[in-house]
Description:
elongated; alpha+beta; single chain
Amino acid sequence: MKYVFFRIPVADWAKAEFNPFCTQNRVVSIDKQFVVAGAHVTWAFSTGFPRSCVECWFRSANFANQHT
Length: 68
């Protein structure tokens, strides 16, 4: 399984590209954590998809390169 990780500030949730990523890829698992680090409050997501989903992998690799 391949994974893509997201860290989304709570204040920017409406601008997050997490939902479009999930709809464009065959995501099979999501783990989420609410993270409070001082004044920084974020959601952290780990999304997994099958290694056999080559199209998903290339989309996520391009997505990750543009959004990390």
